[in-house]
Specification:
The N terminus is likely disordered. The longest helix is centred in the first third of the chain and has 14 residues. The chain is mainly β and 247 residues long. A 13-stranded antiparallel β-sheet has the order 6-5-4-3-2-1-13-12-11-10-9-8-7, with helices on one face. Helix 1 packs parallel to helix 4. Helix content is 15%, strand content 48%.
Length: 247
């Protein structure tokens, strides 16, 4: 469940710096950033709170995510009277997962920290990607549900791969595929589809998503709906400290 919950918010903000790269990439990113509201609106977000509703096989649960610059994130997931918590303060990460049968706070694994660190990047992986040690290439075009999309490939400093599909007409992100390499040599892969975009204080957010993951040869699709988005509200640093077990 941990990686599934991390993945859900894997792709709300994915943008790129606009100078010094191939013309094809520049043109796609310029259109994308403009469609989202512009680079000034992106950089103006100092913190962010999102609430989503997830339908997982008939069981509906709520997830709330808090993100704050420069790289902090907290995720709370509530279902059937229990709440799991994941926290990353930019350096360390912890999980409290009662769904696993454990009522103790545990340090995140290296694989979990690698993924959650990318999630904590409030700008998304593409903004200033070169400074982060990432590489981006233009992979041409691909059909996404009947509409053509530009395909960009991002390779991280850990050799993980993320594909971004940006609609040719709207300039918005409509699909993303993550391929993460795990410490044990295995690979995790997940796909997200985005739709129903809304303007929140000058920026566009997808309010409907579909998460697809493969497990033991089966593909599981999970519909996700955004309930609310708030930006630049009061958010203290204590929110991102090691969680405590409630007694």
């Amino acid at each position: 469940m941990k990686k599934h919950l991390i993945l859900i918010f894997s792709l709300f903000l994915t943008f790129q710096s606009l100078a010094g790269y191939a013309a094809g990439v520049d043109e796609v990113i310029t259109k994308y950033v403009n469609a989202l509201g512009g680079i000034d609106k992106i950089k103006a977000v100092k913190n962010e709170k999102m609430v989503i509703s997830v339908d997982a096989g008939g069981v509906t649960y709520t997830q709330t995510m808090y993100r704050k610059r420069p790289g902090s994130i907290r995720s709370e997931t509530s279902v059937q009277g229990k709440t799991s918590v994941q926290v990353f303060n930019g350096t360390q990460g912890w999980s409290l997962d009662p769904f696993s049968g454990r009522e103790t706070v545990e340090a995140m694994t290296e694989d979990e920290i690698k993924e959650v660190k990318m999630e904590a990047d409030i700008d998304g992986e593409l903004i200033d990607f070169a400074k982060k040690g990432y590489k981006v290439t233009d992979e041409g075009e691909e059909d996404v549900d009947g509409s053509m999309a530009h395909k960009l490939k991002l390779v991280t400093d850990k050799n993980d791969v993320v594909y971004f599909f940006i609609d040719k007409d709207t300039g918005l992100l409509v699909k993303q595929v993550n391929k993460y390499k795990n410490e044990d040599g295995s690979e995790s892969e997940g796909t997200m589809m985005f739709s129903n975009f809304k303007n929140i204080e000058g920026r566009m957010y997808a309010f409907e998503m579909e998460v697809s993951q493969s497990y033991q040869g089966q593909v599981y699709k999970t519909p996700v709906k955004v309930v609310s988005v708030e930006v630049n509200k009061e958010m203290g640093d204590d929110l991102f400290q090691k969680p405590e077990v409630k007694k």
